Amino acid sequence: MTPVALRAYNANGKSASQEDLIRQYLPLVNQIAHRVASYLRPPLSFEDLVSAGTLGLVKAARDYDAKHGACFKTYAYIRIKGAILDELRKAAMLPPNTNKQIRQAMDLSRRIVEQTGVAPTDQQLAEGLGIDLEQLYQLMDHARAQYFVSIDDNPGDGPTLGQSIAASTSSMPDQQIGREELLAALTKAIMDLDEKRRQIIILYYQQHMTMRQIAEVLGITESRVSQLHASALFALSVTLRAWKDEQF
């Protein structure tokens, strides 16, 4: 256990059963922190992510109720990841002009989705915004943490995307139907991506490969994988937000 994790761990009162859960699943904190390390920007450090994730694990052990149906590992994963992403979000303070550009890109993407049914290509989006591809990728890199975080955000009363995917054992028919519809929309959105971006999403989120490993598999640079990953998340976010708005 790192010094940072140890301090976070010792700062919370725990029962013996909670303590056992925390010790058993503490390696999960490092795994999740490593997976999102590419989003790190100064002054945030890797140890800051570990500390936040450890606190998320401690709270998961404290709040877990087996009667809700999800296994503890699934519940802990969601809480750890949410805590780490909250830490990233707090550090991701963007200049007003950059936020304005992101909103413009989202609005343009949304209009194209409404007209065509699919998210725009990077070239279409860059041309529509009057910028070159390199500037677009820089903009998407700034936006990426925000859209990555949105996977586990819950701005309304319903479950987050992460919870919808994980809690597949729900006995509530309306929740099950809503989850199935969401997963169908997500699947379609992924399939509508171009082949390379689709491969990156599948390798990163299903096969749990790192950016470096994906670069080796696809024969491209790690920085290019990062660009395409940001682009894919941006496209999925636009498509799923459009789908969500159609439900209401």
- How many domain regions? 2
Examine the secondary-structure arrangement and name the CATH architecture of the largest domain. Orthogonal Bundle
How would you characterize the largest beta sheet?
none
Report the sheet-strand fraction. under 5%
The CATH class designation of the largest domain is Mainly Alpha
CATH superfamily of the largest domain: Winged helix-like DNA-binding domain superfamily/Winged helix DNA-binding domain
**What is the 3D shape?**
globular
Low-confidence stretches: 149-175
Number of helices: 12
What is the residue-mean pLDDT, rounded to a whole number?
77
Q: Could you state the order of secondary-structure elements as H and E?
A: HHHHHHHHHHHH
Percent of residues in helical segments?
A: over 70%
**Which secondary-structure class do the elements indicate?**
mainly alpha
Instruction: State the end-to-end CA separation.
Output: 46 Å
Give the CATH topology of the largest domain: Arc Repressor Mutant, subunit A
